[in-house]
Amino acid sequence: MNLDELKQSWDKLTERLEREEVIHQRELRMVMENKITTYNNRIKMNQYLGWLVLVGTVVLLFVQGIQDDPFGWIVIGIVLLMDLFLFAPMYRILKRLARFEDSIIEQEQMIIRFERMFVRRSIVVGCFFACLFAYVIIEALARHAVLTPSWWLWMILTIIASAIAGGWRYMIERERIIEIRQRISALKQFDE
Amino acid sequence: MKTQEKEQQFTEVVHAHRGIIYKVCYMYAPQGMVDDYYQEVLCNLWQNFDQFDGRSKRSTWIYRVALFTCISFVRRKRPASVSLTFDLSSDEDAALRERVEELHSVINRLANLDRALVMLWLDGYSYDEMAEVTGLTKANVSVKLMRAKNKIKEMFNA
User: Fold this and answer.
1) CATH code of the domain in which B35 resides
2) Which residues of A touch B14 (CB under 8 A)?
3) How much is the ipTM here?
4) CB-based contact (8 Å) between B3 and chain A?
5) Which of A1, A10, A20, B74 has its CA 20 to 30 A from that of A164?
6) Angle in degrees, CA A106, A181, A163, rounded to 5
7) Chain B contacts of A37, Cβ < 8 Å?
């Protein structure tokens, strides 16, 4: 093959594509809905994952020996309840959005509500981890009085890594929510 | 623009330029992902449809949106897709398919920007239009395109 043959192949492809049928509005609508479903599923997975991380952290705390500290359990219990309180309606919204049974206006309202809940849940989870790190530091100081520089280094690195991981997840989720909102507003235009 | 009017115009525009969209997606998408790329380009075209101000040709604008979408889409994970793109599996397409695969294997070995320039050149765009699509200067387009063609020649000779 040389450049001329390459050009001929290209022209043949162009010619062939000219004969193809046009994309219909129905298909475009399908594309939008499909995109919403894809982002919806990813958000759902991440919400599950967030819940698992939280439960995993509680199990880890139990194994690490805070079982004798009633105050710690009360705090954890409150956080878990708050998280569940936010997680349940978020899950319901995602399920409803995935069915496409509600009107576009309702879907739009739902995704706005979901976004607000998502921000609240992120704040709760963020506060939980902030309290957790504070608790670990206070406990360690109470037990050992003086902590080694390497302990502090590990602690700081863990806090930074957690903050980066959390922030990164937050940004990705937010981007997906925005994508869903954009697709819903595109669908809304179809229905107007 | 009213929605019905927009839909009508959009359908016409996509119909008139479906070849461009498909070719760009085909040249940038990894195997089996052309549908995903095609969908993404359609979504972006739909969302930005009102922003086309007519300063450039419609085909140039579509090329720009398609290229930008495909280049930025490369880094993302694979979403689920509905099948929308063209099927070249019929018997009459067998010979064409072979040529297209060959074409793909050559163009696909070029860097993202070179790939875009070669596609624009194959579609007969002028240096000015290539510069408009890619954001390069005309001189830069000419140099880069020359290098990309030389790379292709080397591939043929290898």
Assistant:
1) 1.10.1740.10
2) 22-23
3) 0.78
4) yes
5) B74
6) 120
7) 80
Cβ(B10)–Cβ(B46) below 8 Å = yes
Domain ranges of chain A: 28-191
Report CB contact under 8 Å: B86, A20. yes
Query: What gap in Å lies between CA A46 and CA A174, rounded to an integer?
Result: 12
Q: What is the pLDDT of residue A25?
A: 58
pLDDT tens digit sequence for A116-143: 888 888 888 888 888 888 888 887 888 7
* Burial of residue B125 (number of CB atoms within 10 Å: 0-12, 13-18, 19+): buried
- Going by C-alpha positions, the residue among A1, A8, A7, A10 that lies closest to residue B155 is A1
Q: CATH no. for residue B125?
A: 1.10.10.10
Question: How does residue A100 score in pLDDT terms, banded at 50, 70 and 90?
Answer: low
Separation in Å, CA of A164 to nearest CA in chain B? 20
